[in-house]
Amino acid sequence: MAVLNVHEWGPGDGPACLVIHGVQNTGARYRRLAQEGLPECRMLAVDLRGHADSLWDAPWNTETHVADIIETMEALDLQRVPVIGHSFGGMLATHLAATVPERITGLALLDPAVALDPSAATAAADDVRRDEGWATPDEAFEARAAVRPPHAVDTVEEDLRVFMRLDPDGRYRFAFSRPAAITAWGELARPPVSLADYSGSVLVMTALQANLVNDQLRTSLRSDLGDRFSEVGIDAGHMLFWDAFEETVVRLRTFLGLPAPAA
After folding, report:
1. pTM to 2 decimals?
2. Is residue 223 annotated as part of the catalytic site, yes or no?
């Protein structure tokens, strides 16, 4: 197992919060959420194995990712902590809570990708396999900006700066292992893990424009948690912490027991 690279923001003596990013992603993408949305927290966002500045070596299955996160929690002396997980990170967060339930005080799952339709997961893995990248940074910016909401285009430049690399073939791509990402898409077709032994609460924040969160996950969480499971819908795309930043912050602060943001 490995200690992962960690992006840290906020006061060292503030309440800690662990963040787990999605597939083809990086912990660096949570800078604004940490610095502007939750500035009093000690925000710790990992780079998962196969992503950005963490180890890229196999294996990349769910159990290894969870073991890496636990190893990193040990290195950071995180004994009990709430977890924010986005997409694949949401799925990993549920497995983390199932593995070490006594160490997780709450789960905030941002548009979690769990129990995906196998054909959809296969198609996404095929897209990774065919990734040709971009010829120039300008081409990358234009392509990424075209799929962002107009009010969120300002996230693209920073994202490319911290996460895009020039590969040996002369093409620009995001810094993640293609085999690791393909493996992750396969893992996302797994059924929900049982949280019957977990005593904390779970908030699911569903991106209504993404149509990703499904009834299989809802049924599993409701069965295991009862009224400790709650769900809110946000009118945004999958990257809701960019697309609907203010509402995401309000929901997270409430869940974490923090005062409402200043007007």
Report:
1. 0.96
2. no
Structure tokens at 211: 């149509």
In the set 7, 65, 95, 238, the catalytic residue is 238
Q: Is 87 designated active site?
A: yes
Domain ranges of the chain: 6-118+179-255
Active site residue 238: yes
Residue 142 confidence (pLDDT): 92
**Amino acid type, 91:** M
Q: Exactly one of 47, 68, 86, 87 is catalytic; which is it?
A: 87
Fold of 6-118+179-255: Rossmann fold (3.40.50)
Neighbours of 238 (CB within 10 A): 18
**DSSP string for the chain:** --PPPEEEES-TTSPEEEEE--TT--GGGGHHIIIIISTTSEEEEEPPTTBTTS--PSP-SHHHHHHHHHHHHHHHT-SSEEEEEETHHHHHHHHHHHHSGGGEEEEEEES---S--HHHHHHHHHHHHT---BSSHHHHHHHHHTTS-GGGTHHHHHHHHHHEEE-TTS-EEESB-HHHHHHHHHHTTSPPPP-TT--SEEEEEEETTT----HHHHHHHHHHHGGGEEEEEESS-S-HHHHTHHHHHHHHHHHTTPPPPP-
* Mean pLDDT per 10-residue interval, the chain, length 263 residues: 97 98 97 97 99 98 99 98 99 99 99 98 96 94 85 82 94 97 98 98 98 98 98 96 96 95 71
Exposure class string for 244-259: b at 16+ Cβ within 10 A, else e? bbebbbebbbebbebe
